[in-house]
Structures are given as structure tokens and as C-alpha cells.
Amino acid sequence: TALGGAERSIFELAAALSGLGFEVHILAAKGQTEAKNIHILCQEQAGRRTGFFTFEEALKKHLSENQY
Q: What percentage of the chain exceeds 70 in pLDDT?
């Protein structure tokens, strides 16, 4: 699938930062990827969109379980 404007910008920023030697991780609510640095947090949620508070809780859980 094609990336939208915001998604493309984030992908390009992450690639540029990685090119400068930074370790970059992208945390997303939904999507599909095989990249190790992109973490899909709400894949099991029904529907196309994820509510803010659902994503917030998933983000808190992910950050409590991972160190950056």
C-alpha cells in the first residue's frame, strides 16, 4: 500500500536519522511491516482507526516494557 503524506514524512525522517547513525524506532497504532524498528501497538483492535486513549494505553505499556 502507498504511504500517505504524514507516513511518508515520518519514514523519510527515520531513514535520514538512521543514516546519521541514530537508532530510530517508530511506534504506530496500525499497519503492516516486517521492519524491526517499526512497532505496531494496536494491531488486534477492530476497525480502521484507533482511538487516542487506546493508543495511549498501548504506548504506556510498550514503553514500560522496553528501554530506549
A: 96
